[in-house]
């Protein structure tokens, strides 16, 4: 199993929605 | 440029190194009737409320070794779950390690009898990022690891019947909270726990992590305060026997997909939606953890959350990698065989061997074309460069492509991991094969 670690997630808004069953990535979030 | 593989990001080398000062914390302005924002900071960064509690932060060798432990524990748990899914609830086999948690399903207690199967293998939550939450009435503040790779939230509790590790915040004291209550053994909430026990009619929980770290105690309810929002009757672990690599935190906030996670417990209020942002290491700003339907930034590109691979983890479909704007030639099955988890607590992204090899080769070629020569690797990191005397470096871009077309163009702060200015390494590693 591959794992997307937190170093690669930096400055992105990582968005989870259990209802819609989606994960999203938004650049420049912080 | 997209097809010739020469897309470049101009990297400020200092941005890879830790900052030394923290800007004044920003007032939370996003909280509303159905949303709440918490600040997220690096556990060992300048903005951490735990910063002055440490003698010195862990070394890179310790961080990467702990990261490998976490990855291996995730792999064990996924493998055990996959086995269960295939065999329809085949029992988890006990691992070779002793069980310091010592909880016996069906009866007491905090004893040291070795029964909890280590191969349940939850990901260790030492993580890097922490949030501060409130617990009890009146609420007291506790800084905890935030972890999308596990479900049950817990804090260390008085009277610490067996053991508590050292933490910065005062211990949570149930006797001082007017809203605290133990969960009874007959309560259905007790059945939601993966590992539970019973003593004197009170439900016990236990979580044992991949490296032997553990927490055991009473499963309880109390009011959880996140930002200015109160979640009444929140179920959490009141730890009476805790030890391991938890730093100076007071415990852990579980944000997985399981029934006991905050995500699921507060779904009635926030609709199961949350978002976070980890700040770059060098910046003096903080990140955030948002809950609620408005948590999603407008520019978010989404990919399906794959929920057939078992509980807890957030699986997504990684389909490809681009280096310098050029798509690498990697069969999609290389990614789809084992799947990909998005994890807040793993530091370095792990890829199947074939994918890592293609990424490393393309990045090495891109760096060579820009005049950089490789230097010795460090721990799990193999592709390293000497940036001594360089303030800005032009390096190839790295993008991760997901099912549905969502693309994560890795920020300049996330392509490389700096051991020192003389040893700056590609922040990816292999999981060793393509089948794990």
Characterise the protein shown here.
The complex is a heterodimer of chains A (30) and B (436). With 30 residues, chain A is mainly β. Chain A has one helix spanning 6-9; strands spanning 2-4, 13-17, 22-26. Chain A has a two-stranded antiparallel sheet with strand order 2-3. Chain A is flat, with a radius of gyration of 10 Å. Chain B is α+β, with helices and mostly antiparallel strands and 436 residues long. In chain B, 15% of the residues lie in helices and 31% in strands. At the A-B interface, strand 1, helix 1, strand 2 and strand 3 of A face helix 1, strand 12, strand 14, strand 18 and strand 19 of B.
Sheet bearing the most strands of chain A, described?
2 strands, antiparallel
Could you tell me the strand content of chain B as a percent range? 25-35%
Report the end-to-end length of chain A measured between terminal Cα atoms. Answer: 28 Å
Percentage beta strand of chain A: 35-45%
pLDDT < 50 stretches of chain A: none
Number of helices of chain B: 7
What's the total count of β strands of chain B?
Answer: 27
Largest β-sheet summary of chain B = 6 strands, mixed, barrel
Number of helices of chain A: 1
Q: Please name the two chains that share the biggest interface, counting residues whose Cβ lies under 8 Å from a Cβ on the partner chain.
A: A-B, 30 and 75 residues
Class of secondary structure makeup of chain B: alpha+beta
Summarize the structure.
The complex is a heterodimer of chains A (30) and B (436). With 30 residues, chain A is mostly beta strands.
Element layout with pairings:
The complex is a heterodimer of chains A (30) and B (436).
Chain A: E1 2-4, H1 6-9, E2 13-17, E3 22-26
Antiparallel strand pairs in A: 2-3
Chain B: E1 8-12, E2 36-42, H1 60-87, E3 129-135, E4 140-147, E5 154-156, E6 181-182, H2 188-191, E7 196-199, E8 202-208, E9 214-226, E10 229-243, E11 251-254, H3 262-265, H4 267-270, E12 273-277, E13 287-291, E14 301-304, E15 314-316, E16 318-323, E17 326-327, H5 332-336, E18 340-342, E19 349-351, H6 353-369, E20 374-375, E21 384-385, E22 392-396, E23 398-402, E24 407-409, H7 412-415, E25 416-420, E26 423-426, E27 428-430
Parallel strand pairs in B: 4-11, 5-10, 19-27
Antiparallel strand pairs in B: 1-22, 2-3, 2-13, 3-4, 3-9, 5-11, 6-9, 7-8, 8-9, 9-10, 12-13, 15-18, 16-17, 16-23, 20-21, 21-26, 23-24, 25-26
């Amino acid at each position: 199993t591959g794992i997307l670690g937190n170093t690669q997630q930096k400055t992105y808004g990582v968005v989870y929605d259990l209802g819609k069953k989606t994960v999203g990535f938004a650049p420049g979030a912080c | 440029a997209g097809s010739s593989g020469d897309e470049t990001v101009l990297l400020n080398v200092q941005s890879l190194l830790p900052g030394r000062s923290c800007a004044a914390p920003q007032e939370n302005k996003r909280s509303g009737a159905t949303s709440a924002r918490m600040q997220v900071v690096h556990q060992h960064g300048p903005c951490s409320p735990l910063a002055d509690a440490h003698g010195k932060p862990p070394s890179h060798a310790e961080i990467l070794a702990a990261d490998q432990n976490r990855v291996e524990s995730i792999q064990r748990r996924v493998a055990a779950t996959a086995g269960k899914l295939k065999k329809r609830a085949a029992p988890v086999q006990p691992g070779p390690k002793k069980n310091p948690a010592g909880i016996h399903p069906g009866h007491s207690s905090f004893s040291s009898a070795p029964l909890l199967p280590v191969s349940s293998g939850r990901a260790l939550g030492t993580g890097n990022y922490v949030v501060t939450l409130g617990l009890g009435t009146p609420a007291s503040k506790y800084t905890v690891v935030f972890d999308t790779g596990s479900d049950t939230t817990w804090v260390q509790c008085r009277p610490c019947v067996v053991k508590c590790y050292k933490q910065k915040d005062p211990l949570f004291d149930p006797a001082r909270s007017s809203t605290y209550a133990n969960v009874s053994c007959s309560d259905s909430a007790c059945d939601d726990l993966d590992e539970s026990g019973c003593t004197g009619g009170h439900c016990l929980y236990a979580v044992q992590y991949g490296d032997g770290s553990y927490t055991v105690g009473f499963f309880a309810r109390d009011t959880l305060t996140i930002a200015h929002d109160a979640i009444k009757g929140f179920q959490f672990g009141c730890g009476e026997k805790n030890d391991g690599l938890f730093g100076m935190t007071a415990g852990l906030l579980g944000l997985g997909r399981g029934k006991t996670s905050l995500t699921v417990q507060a779904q009635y209020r926030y609709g199961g939606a949350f978002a976070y942002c980890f700040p770059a290491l060098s910046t003096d700003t903080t990140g955030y953890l948002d809950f609620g339907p408005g948590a999603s930034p407008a520019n978010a590109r989404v990919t399906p959350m794959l929920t057939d691979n078992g509980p807890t983890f957030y699986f997504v479909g990684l389909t490809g990698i681009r280096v310098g704007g050029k798509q690498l030639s990697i069969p999609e099955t290389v990614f789809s065989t084992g799947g990909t988890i998005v994890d807040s607590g793993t530091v370095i992204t792990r890829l199947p061997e074939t994918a890592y090899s293609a990424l490393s080769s393309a990045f090495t070629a891109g760096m060579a074309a820009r005049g950089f020569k490789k230097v010795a690797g460090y721990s799990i990191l193999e592709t390293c460069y000497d940036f001594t005397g360089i303030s800005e470096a032009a390096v190839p871009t790295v993008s991760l492509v997901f099912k549905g077309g969502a693309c994560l163009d890795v920020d300049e702060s996330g392509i490389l991991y700096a051991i020192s200015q003389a040893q700056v390494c590609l922040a990816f590693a292999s999981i060793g094969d393509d089948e794990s």
